[in-house]
Design a protein that fits this description.
By secondary structure, the chain is mostly helical. It is built from 17 helices and no strands.
């Protein structure tokens, strides 16, 4: 009896090559969102019919990400991972071109529409973690997910610098060059993705077991719990992150430069721990890693409730970033170990809209709640939500359903 050879994409050389390529593409294509964060509201001030609408383009990006999460998953599993991810980068190229011309033409609503599709491209970027998780052997999965997300550190530098460099490239059209930069960043990602050799999506053949239905997957604690903890990690991170710079400047009187510095520290803290998160998961398991992440998010709220200095905000936002990293990567790893290959599309199509829908609701509601219930109350809300996540993890472990790290 001969031993079945492992698929070629799981071979160590190919696996590490795919990790390097996806990390590079993550650093470029996900920089588009950093360009939007850095320049969208500033560009919109001169375009919007009412200054109160200046944040609408950023909201359009978030809504585009949330609404495109499910279609992106379906497209990737229909076309294949490499072609699907390349399509996502191509959408970014087209969106960047339209954003550029919308500023040249002075069209605010066209600008909003173009940033919706920047969000659509971002929905494909979020699939990188599943693409690599399903294309490596189980013992490498946690490290592979972590290493791909390290690209976010570079994106946090490349995006703002692109926005700054392009600000005055075109006279009379501030920031048009910034959004033209999205075209170049997406094009680099498109080319890099063409060299990947990722696992093909698994589609049941006639006579094969179809795997569990979506309803059956949702009833499984090892599927439901990591989806819930990913939602909690992403929603709380977004909730506090969006409100923090507003609170620093408009409530507590800190300068915009101080708020920007605190947010930059937060972005680095979101992605830099990815260098060790996979190792942590392999040592203590995904559920324990998620629990540490949730406790760090609660710690962020505790620091915010005990001071409003720049140092308090900075320390809290760093804790928030590390907490998100552990919670989100741990949840992704736990989920990818809980479904069979033929169930991947259903599990991922279940996860993505819920996680990024929660993120969108948190982002939109954060500013509103800051002005209605205040900064302290926003942080108090984090504690019961974290407790729900910890309770769910405890329930999953008590039921003996811990997913493999």
């Amino acid at each position: 009896m001969t031993q079945q050879a492992s698929p070629p994409w799981t071979q160590r050389g190919t696996a590490y090559r795919n990790i390097a390529l996806l990390t590079t593409s993550m650093a470029t294509v996900s920089s588009n969102q950093a360009v939007v964060v850095s320049a969208a509201a500033l560009a919109a001030i001169s375009l919007a019919p009412d200054p109160a609408l200046a944040t609408l383009p950023m909201t359009a990006t978030i809504v585009g990400l949330a609404l495109s999460a499910l279609p992106a998953t379906r497209i990737i599993h229909g076309l294949g991972r490499r072609k699907g991810l390349m399509l996502g980068a191509a959408v970014g190229i087209a969106a960047g071109v339209v954003a550029f011309y919308s500023i040249i033409l002075g069209s605010f609503w066209l600008f909003c529409a173009s940033l919706f599709f920047v969000g659509t491209s971002a929905a494909f970027v979020q699939q990188y973690r599943f693409a690599i998780a399903d294309s490596v052997s189980g013992d490498l999965r946690a490290r592979a997910i972590s290493l791909v997300l390290v690209g976010g550190v570079a994106a946090g530098i490349i995006g703002p610098q692109t926005a700054l460099f392009g600000k005055d490239l075109f006279a009379g059209a501030p920031f048009a060059g910034s959004f033209l930069g999205i075209v170049g960043l997406s094009a680099i990602g498109f080319v890099v993705l063409s060299f990947t050799r990722l696992a093909p999506p698994r589609h049941p053949k006639p006579g094969d077991a179809p795997g569990r239905s979506t309803r059956e997957l949702l009833r499984s604690p090892t599927v439901f719990v990591p989806i819930a903890t990913a939602m909690i990690s992403y929603a709380l991170m977004t909730f506090v992150m969006v409100a923090a710079p507003l609170a620093m400047v408009t409530v507590w009187g800190h300068s915009p430069a101080e708020a920007t510095g605190a947010i930059q520290a937060h972005i680095v803290a979101m992605y830099l721990p990815s260098l060790i998160t996979g190792w942590v998961i392999s040592r203590i398991g995904a559920p324990a890693t998620i629990a540490i992440g949730l406790v760090l998010i609660a710690g962020c709220a505790f620091v915010n409730l005990n001071g409003v200095s720049v140092l308090h905000f900075s320390v809290a936002l760093v804790m928030l970033g590390v907490g998100w990293n552990f919670g989100f990567i741990g949840s992704t790893t736990m989920l990818t170990g809980a479904y069979a290959p033929e169930e991947a599309e259903r599990a991922q199509a279940l996860n993505e809209p819920l996680v990024f829908g929660a993120m969108a609701v948190a982002s939109i509601g954060s500013g509103v709640l800051l002005h209605t219930i205040g900064w302290q109350s926003i942080n108090v809300l984090a504690f019961p939500i974290v407790l729900v996540g910890l309770a769910l993890l405890g329930w999953c472990v008590m039921n003996g359903r811990r997913a493999p790290a």
